[in-house]
Design brief:
alpha/beta, Rossmann fold, 5-stranded parallel sheet, 225 residues, 18% strand, 4-stranded mixed sheet
């Protein structure tokens, strides 16, 4: 008799109950998994009529999976493979994804696409970092309208505080590993964001666009219930 709430594949226990708890099924993190394991887990998620997201997957491995999963799509920028099997009603408003520079866009796309697959409307505002702060000030109207804002920045990571100071919504800050030596591969941006004096800033881990997109979607859905 199968265990309640998950399916035991021997090498993995697929959490088939997660959609009931979180509103979205288990997401697959690709690095470290064999192609056989990725395919088996993916098919188990699909078998339960769930949407599928595979993060941090390269194009070669996507090509292998696509042969056995019709309709599987891929974003090379976000490095996400996905298959939507359910239609979700989009609520009012949008999630705004903001980056400090164009080098932050891959992490931003991981966040944006995650939220979109989870049924949210997303707008993008790229390359508005603090070295030219007038660029983000010029889009103040977008900041004020957003239900949730995701700010992605490397270097010193100051953009999250600036955006939060102009917006009324929650800001989810994502430090990236973009920057020169003293940025310590994102640690400098992480500490800046954690020490923000602007209230309402939540911080996820370095380069964790998926985590930010997932959290933003949960907040977005709660505002539209």
């Amino acid at each position: 008799m199968p265990a309640k709430g998950y399916c035991n594949l021997g090498f993995a226990r697929v959490d088939t109950d997660r959609k009931k708890r979180k509103g979205f099924p288990e997401v697959i993190y690709a690095p470290g998994k064999t192609l056989t394991h990725l395919r088996s887990i993916s098919k188990e998620i699909i078998r339960h009529r769930n949407d599928l997201i595979i993060t941090r997957i390269d194009e070669k491995n996507y090509g292998y999976l696509k042969e056995g999963i019709p309709g599987l799509k891929y974003s090379p920028l976000a490095k996400i493979a996905y298959l939507k099997q359910t239609k979700k009603t989009q609520g009012n408003g949008f999630i705004l994804v903001v980056t400090g520079g164009t080098s932050d866009i891959p992490v931003a796309e991981e966040a944006a696409l995650t939220s979109e697959i989870m049924g949210c409307k997303v707008k993008r505002l790229f390359d508005v970092g603090v070295a030219g702060v007038h660029r983000v000030i010029d889009k103040k109207h977008l900041l004020k309208k957003a239900k949730v804002i995701i700010v992605i920045a490397g270097m010193e990571g100051a953009l999250a505080s600036i955006v939060s100071g102009m917006a009324s919504s929650v800001v989810i800050a994502v430090p990236t590993s973009i920057g020169y030596g003293a940025s310590f591969k994102g640690v400098a941006a992480l500490l800046t964001m954690l020490n923000s004096c602007s209230p309402g800033v939540a911080v996820v881990n370095i380069d964790n666009g998926f985590g930010a997109g997932y959290l933003a979607a949960m907040i977005y859905r709660s505002k539209n219930e």
